[in-house]
Amino acid sequence: MKEGFRQSMAWLHTWSGLLVGWVLFMVFAAGTASYFKDETTFWMKPELHAVAQNAVPPVKAVESAVAYLQQRAADSPRWFINLPNERQPSTDVLYLAPPAPAGAAAATGAKPGEKPRRRFDRASLDPATGEAVSAPRVTRGGEFFYRLHFDLHYMPALWARWIVGFCAMFMLVAIFSGIVTHKRIFKDFFTFRPKKGQRSWLDAHNVTAVLALPYHLMITYTGLVTLMFMYMPWGPQVAYKDRGGEQAFFSEAFPGGGRDQIKASGNRVPRAPIAPMMAQASAHWGGAAVGRVTVHQPNDANAVVSLTRAEGPQLSYDQPSMQFNGATGALIGAFGDVPKPAAETRGVLYGLHIGRFGDPLLRALFFLSGLAGCLMVATGLLMWAVKERQKFAKTLKQGGRVSFGLRLVDGLNLGAIAGLPVAMAAFFWANRLLPVDVAERGEAEIRWFFIVWGATAVLGLLRPTLRMWQAQLALGALLFAGLPVLNAFTGPAPLTVSLRTGPTSVAGFDLVVIALGLGLAGAAWIVERKRRKSIAKQAAAKTQPPPSTLATSGQGS
Asked: What are the start-end ranges of the H helices in 398-505?
């Protein structure tokens, strides 16, 4: 505090951003990609590209899905049916497979003496015909980026969420300390001075920060709120200590969500038709459509059918639901129509974070704001390295070397900022180039993501030079720009997909990756110009006579 409050905030801003900046860049990049995770998954399943886009009534789609499940999973304890929408043209069904025979423990991965593990089977159906789409490839799709931005990978989810939450708290500190540090925050929004070295990096950092400042504050705070029960569990634990603990709190805060433990009676009865239930639910919600159907213990006297409202323009992530007796069709109850204030507040904050309430244009704005966040973090990391390198300017002129810390930061910057886009593009290439029937195909795609990212990070640490920056940025540009060409040769019917499918269209994905490729190509071109300028400057310095010689010749003339 000796230098003053503002200077102290500047120090706090620098170090709170630098220490976790590389994790934050990955979180921002993966989270930004998640705004269109459904569209990404659709692109990564080219077998679905030819699914008919004709408008199919939701009732028909459900009836077709129920007929499919009745034929293949009549004894399953649970059915899940996700209805098609403008972002996902197929009907996705998921069902819990019946318990494996006792002798199948080894095959299911269970240890001797343990119950065989139960698995979920899934299928994508053409909503018009009810037939399963021919062998859609197994992939995590956009869900991988969504989970990556808060669950990381190859580590327990609990540890990952604590790490990401810790980094998010640092991010919040960096944002507020940055606001305090900037005296001219609004003037900085309109100020950019190119080719000015450290000043240019600072201007770029300020512009990308101020441009989407409300978004940065919202996304960081709401990200912490989504996991608030993990970070601050003490309130429910104390308040519900004598009433059943945290489980009682969740049952009261989120009613209607605890129907998964329904026991079968063993008495098989005909199913009640779901169409009247859907009509009653839609009328109850003022005409809103049903988005998901869950059937507990189908074909049993204790069957329960749960209908969840389709996502719409409502800010809250939590959607109301209605439950019916699966044997008689009688209404059991409606849940979530008038949520309690605390639950509604959390639902709105969670909904703001994931942005599923928005139309394509609004989600595109969120996507651009997320890219601005990536640039904000990247320019902050690079600015620190540029500023620190100035301290070694004299040493470098004399043939010396920079410190280990600066070299480490340079390598981490290269691996995170330039290497991550290469890995993300490689993930899409692996989706199309790996054999469709390869074992554990979804994990194989993810392995290639981390293999490529690891390789770029190692190369960046070994040679953190402008040439390496240019090479990795150019590679990322080539891989992203080449994805539409790859799709044209590996998709079954890419040209038949109608543009009227909206944001789920293959064309929309292709246009975005082309734009990202052009952006990376532009960055590679800028780096190349800087590299050539640096070489020319070094050459001029070598050919220039020493200062003493210049002084002597001046005196002689």
From this structure: 404-413, 419-433, 441-462, 466-481, 483-490
